[in-house]
Amino acid sequence: MSASPTDRQAVASARLRVMLVDDHELVRQGINFLLTSDGTIDVVAEGSSLSEGMTLVRSTPVDVLVVDVSLGDGSGLDLVRQAREQRPRLGIVVLTMHDDDHTLLEALDAGASALVLKSGSADEVISAVKHAATAPDSFTAAGLAAAVRRRDNPDTPRLTVRETEVLQRLAAGDSVAAVAKQLYMSESTVKTHIAKLYDKLGANNRASAVMAAIRSGLIKS
């Protein structure tokens, strides 16, 4: 059941309490700074392992749990499952460096509210936390629709989130330089993604790649 308008307004007007679980101290410090700099979020608890996270979920009242997939003593998705079972209204954001369908769909199935790549922007992380606080029982992630479509149709080429973003910019007519600027990449990285796209789509130029992607349902015409 989705949050009522009254519930959403109440959360929006209060400072969000966040629990952060990541096994790298420097990463935790960086995410802590990123979230608290928004001015509406307080990081009130931190853990560095699956076991610490499980203890904190049971003992610490927070609005949102932010957890890395890879923890030293287990998977952060196990923490997601336990947290969702114990606290159905808790917002849960999964952070990961793994840009693949399997991780995204596992986070969805585990009961997360959002998944964000660690390579994403600060705005993406903050937006995911706020989404999780107001709509903990829904799920948002870049590339979700395409991942579900590929799961339902195994013959569809499997693109990473970054490859999909590059493909969308190519379909819009952007040059390599423009794509690099839009997606905060180097031009050489964009060219690498384009080469992988051509290989996966069986294309040898931009036009044929875009047409193959449209036929496969990866992008809209």
Quick summary:
This protein has 221 residues and is of the alpha/beta class.
Report the sheet with the most strands, covering strand number, pairing sense and barrel closure: 6 strands, parallel
Q: How many beta-strand runs?
A: 8
Low-confidence segments: none
Q: Return the average pLDDT rounded to an integer.
A: 89
From the alpha carbons, calculate the radius of gyration and give it in angstroms. 19 Å
Terminal residue distance: 34 Å
Q: How does the helix and strand content classify structurally? A: alpha/beta
Following the backbone from N to C, one meets helices and strands in this order, namely HEHEHEEEHEHEHEHHHHH
How much of the sequence is in beta strands? 15-25%
Name the helicity range. 40-55%
Helix count equals 11
Tertiary shape: elongated
- Widest sheet: strand ordering: 2-1-3-6-7-8
Topology:
Elements: H1 5-13, E1 16-21, H2 25-36, E2 41-47, H3 50-59, E3 64-68, E4 70-71, E5 74-75, H4 76-86, E6 91-96, H5 101-110, E7 114-117, H6 122-134, E8 140-141, H7 144-152, H8 161-171, H9 176-183, H10 187-201, H11 206-215
Parallel strand pairs: 1-2, 1-3, 3-6, 6-7, 7-8
Antiparallel strand pairs: 4-5
Helix pairs in contact: 3-4, 8-9, 8-10, 9-10
Structure explained in plain terms:
The chain has 221 residues and is of the alpha/beta class. It is built from eleven helices and eight strands. It has helices spanning 5-13, 25-36, 50-59, 76-86, 101-110, 122-134, 144-152, 161-171, 176-183, 187-201, 206-215; strands at 16-21, 41-47, 64-68, 70-71, 74-75, 91-96, 114-117, 140-141. The strands form two sheets. Strands 2-1-3-6-7-8 form a six-stranded parallel sheet, sandwiched between helices. A two-stranded antiparallel ribbon has the order 4-5. Helix 2 (25-36) links the parallel strand 1 (16-21) and strand 2. Helix 3 packs parallel to helix 4. The radius of gyration is 19 Å and the shape is elongated. The relative contact order is 0.10.
